[in-house]
Design brief:
The structure holds two protein chains of two kinds. By secondary structure, chain A is mainly alpha-helical. Chain A has one domain. Chain A has twelve helices and no strands. In chain A, helix 2 packs parallel to helix 6. The longest helix of chain A has 36 residues. The mean pLDDT of chain A is 87. Chain B is mainly α. Chain B is 74% helix and 0% strand. The longest helix of chain B is centred in the middle third of the chain and has 29 residues. Chain B is globular, with a radius of gyration of 20 Å. Classes of the chains: A mainly alpha, B mainly alpha. The interface between A and B is medium-sized, with 27 and 30 residues. Chain B: Keywords: Membrane, Transmembrane, Transmembrane helix. Chain B: This is ABC transporter permease. Chain A: This is Integral membrane protein.
Chain lengths: 279, 257
């Protein structure tokens, strides 16, 4: 008589399962490739456009592709978080892993891994993108110059953070369209709104008259600092002393802000997963 | 023997069917409500930053919630155009209307029927919630002024156009998420990216994007010289027609999966 050994769902196995699910989709590969391509192309176009300026520094253009490249990791995260709920696959998943939370942990792990790959490729593509405009001016960009390694690291961290933010929002809302809309509003539309507000708030006459920052400007800039995109731009400009009137939180503070945007919705998603019914 | 009376597939009946589909899902109401609430909140919040002496008109303060309003319109249109393909209702719809194109035409009309009133409510509501801000800054909203009328009407026209572009994009892509993403990239991301790198080429590119339609409700002084309000409206109109035509072509010539 043979005994059947049933192996329980250990975390490494759940991670392996999530990894298979993620790589089994064509869209995952597409997102990684498109993110890198868009990052390289936009950086190249931007550096090329400013290469005629007298004080042209190709390193200034390194992070110009970031606002567009961030869409890729964001979508990747949202799809990992909501995909199963829209296809109905979640029933098999949570039947196999009744404790539920290991699935969320595994999704965080695999999303981080793939987003890291996308981020490394996107940053590398951005570096390649500034080379032709730089060589047209006879400049050899020095990637080890002051602040540049931190800036590249910050850009990569911002992209991975965006993927995890998408995952957290997706796991919390469980529906693709609302989750995508929410993350798009926060990362892409909110910065434009705040830019509009800061244009209205700035008073060119008052600014030149005194050194104090007007209260309105300070309010808008403080909000900007604590949005994911604002924190991301602080990460990529380690030498900056923050924006006018906002508390100077530095690169570490910016990383913590980004982490809060990931872990607060992720915690809520874990709570919903643990306490409430699956749809 | 009871006779089965078969009703012919006429356009009014297709229109009635699309109308009941749109009004019987609760998401339509929520999208409309969400659009109005977020637009009014944004207009009110931006109104707090307006001061006397700012180079803005009273009408432009009233339409300042457009950034959120256009997103709501895009979602509305995309769901009308692509929603059926993700739920599978499309199979039934196109079995009932084998000529297919009347469905797209009816979807366009019912979208206008929802988008236009929503845009008007957004406009009137925004004008009301910014009353205090406008009077504090000494800005007037004079309905008899031609420039003001152009901005207010342009706002409603733009928002309706965005919803129609959403229908075309949704019916073309057939996936709500893909269509929404493409819409946001076209309307917000690319425009913003080009705006941060001003130059001759980027200005021309910006004028060719559907976001050029925002010039319909831009202040006279803020309008670029090469493409004014009417031109911007025509650019958006061209994008709407192109998206709907491409969707019609795909619908007519290819499988409906």
């Amino acid at each position: 008589m043979t005994t059947l050994t049933v192996t329980g769902p250990s975390l490494p196995r759940v991670i392996a399962a999530e990894w298979t699910k993620l790589l089994g989709l064509r869209s995952s590969t597409i997102v990684v490739v498109v993110t890198a391509a868009v990052s390289g192309l936009v950086t190249y176009l931007s550096a090329n456009a400013s290469s005629g300026d007298p004080g042209f520094d190709p390193l200034d253009s390194l992070t110009t592709g970031l606002p567009v490249a961030v869409i890729g990791p964001l979508v990747l995260g949202v799809l990992v978080g909501t995909g199963e709920f829209s296809t109905g696959m979640f029933r098999s998943t949570f039947a196999a892993v009744p404790r539920r939370l290991p699935v969320l942990v595994a999704q965080v792990v695999v999303t981080t891994a793939l987003a890291l790959l996308a981020a490394v490729l996107a940053v590398a593509a951005a570096v390649v993108g500034i080379l032709p405009p730089a060589s047209s001016r006879g400049i050899t960009p020095d990637l080890l110059s002051e602040g540049t390694p931190q800036s590249l690291l910050g850009a990569g961290g911002f992209l991975v953070g965006a993927a995890l933010f998408g995952l957290a929002a997706g796991a919390l809302l469980r529906r693709t369209l609302p989750a995508l809309l929410a993350t798009i509003v926060v990362t892409l539309v909110l910065p434009v709104v705040l830019l509009l507000a800061s244009e209205l708030a700035s008073d060119p006459l008052a600014a030149s008259a005194s050194n104090t920052v007007p209260t309105r400007t300070a309010v808008v800039n403080t909000i900007i600092t604590f949005t994911p995109t604002g924190a991301g731009s602080l990460l990529t400009e380690p030498s900056s002393s923050g924006v006018d009137g906002a508390p100077n939180i530095g690169a570490l503070g910016a990383a913590l802000v980004l982490a809060a945007w990931v872990f607060v919705p992720l915690g809520a998603a874990a709570l919903r997963l643990r306490r409430r019914d699956l749809v | 023997m009871s006779g089965h009376r078969l009703l012919a597939v006429t356009f009014p009946r297709v229109l009635a069917a699309e109308w009941s589909k749109l009004t019987s899902v609760s998401s339509t109401l929520w999208i409309a409500l969400g659009t109005v609430v977020s637009t009014l909140s944004l207009a009110f919040a931006l109104g707090l930053f307006v001061r006397a002496g700012d180079a803005v008109s009273g009408a432009s303060v009233a339409v300042s919630g457009s950034l959120f309003a256009q997103l709501g319109m895009l979602v509305l249109g995309v769901l009308v155009g692509a929603g059926e393909f993700s739920t599978g209702t499309s199979t039934v719809t196109f079995a009932a209307v084998p000529r297919r194109l009347p469905v797209l035409a009816a979807q366009t009309l019912v979208t206008v029927a929802v988008a236009l009133p929503t845009a008007v409510v957004c406009l009137v509501g925004s004008a009301l919630v910014t009353t205090a801000a406008r009077s504090a800054a000494g800005l007037t909203l004079d309905p008899a002024d031609a420039g003001t009328v152009r901005i207010l009407a342009g706002y409603v026209l733009y928002l309706t156009g965005v919803a129609l572009f959403g229908v075309g994009l949704g019916a073309l892509v057939r996936r709500p998420t893909g269509a929404l993403l493409a819409g946001v990239v076209l309307f917000v991301v690319l425009d913003q990216l080009l705006a941060t790198n001003p130059g001759r080429i980027t200005d021309v590119l910006r004028a060719a994007l559907p976001a050029a339609g925002t010039r319909l409700f831009a202040d006279e002084g803020a309008l670029p010289t090469h493409l004014g309000a009417g031109g911007g409206g025509l650019v958006l109109g061209a994008w709407v027609v192109a998206a709907l035509a491409a969707a019609a072509y795909r619908l007519r010539r290819f499988d409906v999966t």
